[in-house]
Design brief:
250 residues, Jelly Rolls, 9-stranded antiparallel β-sheet, globular
Length: 250
């Protein structure tokens, strides 16, 4: 765990080369050789699952036929809020991120991809919705609506391709350069160089249903800029497969 969560990196090279990377970036058609598979089946048939529960143990989400399924916990004294997000063992600062998902018709299909646990690419059953909002599938929840509604109906596989640059902070933890996201949903551009600062949601994993481990990860993330990828449980059995990251600007 120390190797994964206590990497302290300086603030040198703030956003160096970002403009050129964004201008030339298009999503990879398959996982690059230098990417890290977080969940999925390798060519030799081996299933990789590098996601953890909030306490740091192996994730308690269901895995069926090579698919990771968002799985809630009972709300009780041990789990007083509705929250059972899962997060990656691997940490990163800037990265290309690929996530394939299938929305369920249950509970509005509500789920999401939380980059660094703070910035949610919304997953929702919003196919055919003519209103673009900050909770439409593909929205950076509470911050930016997607350019278009590129979501597919529940029961069909979909994909996010995200180019993520983390915010840069000074020695006091204050953001001195905003983060940036360019993202595609199902091959359609939905965000281009969208900027963001401090997280705005009260329900992200470091604020809602957090654990001592998550509080520790958040504190180290403020110092280093490195953090994990979260998948959100919001009471809908959303399915995930072929989740990978490719680190950049290392």
């Amino acid at each position: 765990m120390r190797k994964l969560f206590f990497v302290l990196i300086g603030l040198s090279g703030i956003f160096g080369g970002i403009t050129s990377v964004i201008g030339n970036w298009t999503p990879a058609k398959s996982m690059p050789n230098d990417a890290v598979l977080l969940f999925g089946t390798q060519e030799d048939g081996t299933l990789v699952n590098h996601f953890l529960a909030k306490e740091g143990t192996q994730t308690d989400w269901k895995v069926e036929n090579g698919i990771l399924i968002s799985t809630p916990r009972p709300v009780d004294a041990q789990n007083p809020v509705r929250s059972n997000h899962t997060f990656s063992k691997e940490v990163f600062r800037d990265a290309e991120i690929h996530v394939e998902f299938m929305v369920s018709p249950e509970n509005m299909g509500n789920s999401g991809v939380y980059v660094h646990g703070n910035y949610e690419l919304q997953i929702m059953n919003t196919a055919g919705d003519e209103t673009l909002g900050k909770n439409t599938t593909g929205a950076i929840y509470g911050i930016h609506s997607p350019k278009v509604n590129a979501s597919r109906p529940a029961g069909e596989w979909q994909s996010f391709d995200i180019l993520y640059f983390a915010p840069r902070r000074d020695a006091d933890g204050k953001i001195i350069e905003k983060g940036k996201i360019t993202a595609y949903l199902n091959g359609i551009l939905i965000h281009e160089n969208a900027e963001f600062g401090e997280p705005v949601s009260n329900y992200h994993p470091f604020r809602y249903g957090e654990t001592p481990l998550l509080r520790q990860i958040w504190a180290e993330q403020i110092k280093s800029g490195y953090g994990p990828l979260f998948l959100q449980d919001h009471g809908s059995p959303t399915k995930f497969r072929n989740v990978w990251i490719r680190k950049i600007n290392e």
